[in-house]
Amino acid sequence: MSSRFASAIAFSADWREAVEEVLAQLEGPLAPQANLGFLYIADQYAHAARDILGRLRAQTGIDNWVGSTGVGVIGRGQAQIDSPGLSVLIGQMPEDSYRVFSGRAPLSRDFAAYGAVVHADPATPDMSELVQDMATKIRAGTLAGGLASARGTAWQFAGDEPLTGGMSGVAFDSRIRVLTAMSQGYAPLPGSWRVTAAHEHIIDRIDGRPALDVYREAAGPLLGADLRRASRSLLVGLASSSEDRRHYAVRSVVGIDLQKGALAINDGIEAGQHLVFVRRDEHSAREDLRRMLQELREACPGVPAAGLYISCAGRGGAMFERDDSEVEMIGDAFGNLPVAGFFAGGEIVGNRLYGFTGALTLFF
User: Fold this and answer.
1) Are strands 339-344 and 306-312 parallel, antiparallel or unpaired?
2) Euclidean distance between CA atoms 325 and 220, whole angstroms
3) What share of the chain is helix, strand, coil (3-state, %, to 5)?
4) Considering 20, 79, 82, 213, which has the largest number of Cβ atoms within 10 A of its Cβ?
5) Which residues make beta-bridge pairs with 274?
6) Helices 325-334 & 282-299 angle (0-180, nearest 10)
7) Beta bridge mates, 307
8) pTM as predicted
């Protein structure tokens, strides 16, 4: 099934001006037939979230919207962090081919979901378990999305009003073909290790040795002598096995105990967990994103009709030359593709919650 899409993005200090600019960009033959919209608003507009949603519903005739707030928004050829703006993607699909859901209106068990785009509240406890549970409800395993981000209240859109808490989104049946790929933005260092002693978010020993000793060796003489600098560029990748070096969830080193030789990371950790050490820099990020886009192009079953790009709030200009460097590379790979997205507080791909990644979902 070939869906039709259009996207728009606008930046303005006044949310009303941004909404009017987006509506003007969406005018055309698609607008009257579109029945599903993705909406991402910068957190500077959070106070007007209900008004923005109401205005878009009234002017487009689209009742079903999903999305969230972000510390930045992403669109075709444009992306900005810390700038007031909004990004929209609208699509025309068979009315019975998708379901919008949330904690207030859960996904019906009689709907055969083959893919889903989700958004979630970063303050929700046990989010990793919630992601895994949601993934079990998707028959083809195509689950993608991200955690809403904001300096204040992190809003989600699902239905006719903004909401907080839990997870929301839209699920698709087998007629809506989607394909998702993820770029970690890191270069894994040679070797793999196993945590042999840990408690809560503290790694005490790795392969039977003090965790800090192993970390220093992985960092090398220069970085190992400057642990503050090392913690910014050398991170921990939690892998599912010692052989799986391509898929790992990156976690930051947030504390070092010199006396005990322990490391603290920003996630819970248990003995037996496999890990790799990964290096973060612009070159590694560009090369990994370029690889991901090439592999995604080769896997496409046809010409994509639109895309959603969700990037970590720690990427953008902090990782690349500019905030829009990633969407520029997406444009190089896929041309004038309608795109919307946001800078998230965490990225969801498959059955895992990631950080510092960029995830592109394509619709066909």
Assistant:
1) parallel
2) 30
3) 25, 40, 35
4) 79
5) 194, 239
6) 30
7) 339, 362
8) 0.85
